[in-house]
C-alpha cells in the first residue's frame, strides 16, 4: 500500500519539477495574491481614506496577536519588492478590456468549484453547497466552461470557501499573525488550510505534460487576475497609510474573520463582526 504522504510529496515534485524557469517564477509570484486579496476584499473593493486606515492600524496593534512582528515586517518588505518586480509579468492581462478580465475571473472561479463545494459540505452549509453545484452546472454548460457567469444572472452570485474558513467555523482561532515568504499574510490556521486546499483539488492529481502546462497556465492566470484587478487599490493604500504593514495586517484579519462568517464583498465593510476576538 502506498504512503499518502509520499504520494503527495511525489505529486508536488511532479507538478513543480517539470516547469520551465518562467513557470516556476509564475508560481512564486502567483502566491503573492494574498496581499492583493487583502486590499480589495478587506475594504469592500474600495480604498479607505488615510485617516480611517491609520486609525485601524492603531486599533489593530493592541488587538491582533503579532509576536513575530520584527521578522514579519522584514518578510513583508521583501515581498513588497518582489511584488514590484512582478508587475511586468501581468502586462498581457492588463491590456485586456474589462469584459476580458471578467472572463478570466469567471473561468478561474469555476475551476475552484470542487474545493469550494467540499468546504461548503464540511461546514454543513447545504444551501451554499447546492448553490455551488448549480453554479457549476450552469456555468460549465451555458457559460462555456465557466467563461461567462450565467448563474449570477439567475441570482446565484459567487462565493468563496476554503479549509481555513472551515477550521474557523469549527472553532479554531486564527492564532498569531504571520507573513510568509512569497505567500504573504497568513496565520497558522490559514496556512494549514492552504495546504489542504491544494491536495483536495482534483486538478492537483492530474499527471502528464499537458496537465503540468495547464496547471502552470492556471497559476499564472490566477496571479494576473488577482494583482491586475487590485494593483490600483494596493498603490493607493500604500500611499495613504502611515504604516502600510499594520494596515494590511488589520485588513487581512478583518477579511478572514468576516469570511469565516460568510460575510463577503462590500457587506464586510459595514458588518458588525467582532474581528479581534479570536487571537488565540
Could you characterize what this model shows?
This protein has 280 residues and is mainly α. It has helices spanning 4-17, 21-30, 33-42, 50-63, 69-86, 91-94, 98-111, 113-122, 126-141, 150-153, 163-169, 188-199, 209-240, 244-260, 267-270; strands at residues 178-180, 184-186. β1 and β2 form a beta hairpin. α2 crosses α13. It is globular. The N and C termini lie far apart (39 Å). The model is unreliable at 18-32, 42-53 and 270-280 (pLDDT under 50).
Tally of alpha and pi helices: 15
Q: What do the pLDDT scores average to?
A: 81
Summarize the main sheet: 2 strands, antiparallel
Shape: globular
* Poorly predicted sequence stretches spanning 5 or more consecutive residues: 18-32, 42-53, 270-280
Report the order of strands and helices. HHHHHHHHHHHEEHHHH
Q: Strand order across the biggest sheet? A: 1-2
* Spatial extent as radius of gyration: 19 Å
Give me the count of strands.
2
Q: What percentage of residues falls in helices of 4 or more residues? A: 55-70%
Please report which band the strand proportion falls in: under 5%, 5-15%, 15-25%, 25-35%, 35-45% or over 45%.
Answer: under 5%
Distance between the termini: 39 Å
Amino acid at each position: 500500500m502506498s504512503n499518502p504522504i509520499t504520494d503527495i510529496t511525489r505529486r508536488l515534485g511532479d507538478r513543480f519539477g517539470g516547469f520551465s524557469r518562467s513557470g516556476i517564477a509564475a508560481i512564486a509570484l502567483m502566491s503573492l495574491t494574498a496581499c492583493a486579496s487583502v486590499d480589495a476584499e478587506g475594504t469592500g473593493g474600495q480604498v479607505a481614506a488615510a485617516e480611517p486606515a491609520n486609525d485601524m492600524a492603531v486599533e489593530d496593534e493592541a488587538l491582533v496577536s503579532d509576536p513575530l512582528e520584527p521578522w514579519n515586517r522584514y518578510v513583508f518588505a521583501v515581498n513588497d519588492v518582489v511584488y514590484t518586480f512582478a508587475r511586468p509579468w501581468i502586462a498581457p492581462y492588463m491590456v485586456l478590456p474589462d469584459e476580458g478580465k471578467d472572463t478570466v475571473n469567471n473561468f478561474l472561479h469555476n475551476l475552484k468549484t470542487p474545493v469550494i463545494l467540499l468546504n461548503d459540505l464540511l461546514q454543513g452549509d447545504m444551501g451554499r453547497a447546492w448553490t455551488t453545484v448549480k453554479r457549476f452546472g450552469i456555468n460549465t454548460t451555458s457559460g462555456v466552461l465557466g467563461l461567462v457567469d450565467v448563474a449570477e444572472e439567475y441570482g446565484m452570485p459567487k462565493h468563496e470557501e476554503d479549509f481555513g474558513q472551515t477550521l474557523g467555523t469549527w472553532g479554531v482561532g486564527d492564532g498569531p499573525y504571520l507573513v510568509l515568504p512569497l505567500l504573504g499574510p497568513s496565520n497558522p490556521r490559514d496556512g494549514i488550510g492552504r495546504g489542504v486546499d491544494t491536495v483536495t483539488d482534483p486538478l492537483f492529481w492530474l499527471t502528464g505534460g499537458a496537465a503540468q502546462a495547464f496547471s502552470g497556465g492556471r497559476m499564472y492566470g490566477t496571479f494576473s487576475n488577482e494583482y491586475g484587478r487590485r494593483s490600483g487599490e494596493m498603490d493607493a493604500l500604500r500611499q495613504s497609510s502611515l504604516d502600510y504593514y499594520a494596515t494590511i495586517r488589520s485588513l487581512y484579519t478583518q477579511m478572514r474573520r468576516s469570511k469565516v462568517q460568510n460575510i463577503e464583498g462590500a457587506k464586510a465593510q459595514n458588518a458588525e463582526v467582532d474581528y479581534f476576538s479570536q487571537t488565540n
